[in-house]
Amino acid sequence: MTLNQLTIASVEQQELKLSKSGMEIKISNALVQKRVTFLDYVFGGCEISLQVAVDFTASNGPAHNPNSLHFMGNANVPNQYITAIQSVGSILEQYDTDKRYPVYGFGGRMPESPTQTSHCFALNGDVFNPEVPGVGGILNVYRHAIQRVTLHGPTYFSPILRYVNGFCLQKAQEMS
Prior knowledge:
The chain is of the alpha+beta class. The protein has helices at residues 3-12, 38-43, 80-92, 134-148, 158-175; strands at 16-20, 23-27, 52-55, 100-106, 108-109, 117-118, 121-122, 131-133, 150-151. The protein has two domains: 1-33, no CATH class; 48-175, no CATH class. Helix 3 (80-92) packs antiparallel against helix 4.
């Protein structure tokens, strides 16, 4: 049986019978679907928009500790956050038309509120406009924030996810 026969049978809602060696297989409903790829979405007009949220919880280890994900001891060796931002950002940046990215943090204590953990804050300091230009902008606000924010916790993802979801809904409404 060929893919073409299955497709025709599916469209015409026919039952197909396949017989071999005394066995019979009946196919009464076949669905043939194209496997959609990432590029199909991009070529179809889907726009990619990167949003970054950095974990400032103490579970990452103190930024001055060489074992910390935030450790910045050697200017020639990027820490794990910088590596991840550069790796993902450099790819997704190619598919974003305005190349402006909202950047958030969670789980840290800000200098203006040293006794309260914030579970959603803009790394550029502007919660109403958390976007920065390009991957370089993301790295700049991260480097600045890691020097200001006290790592704390606990890790609560829901506040940042709710905020990002609202941001996306707002952007979608602006586009329509």
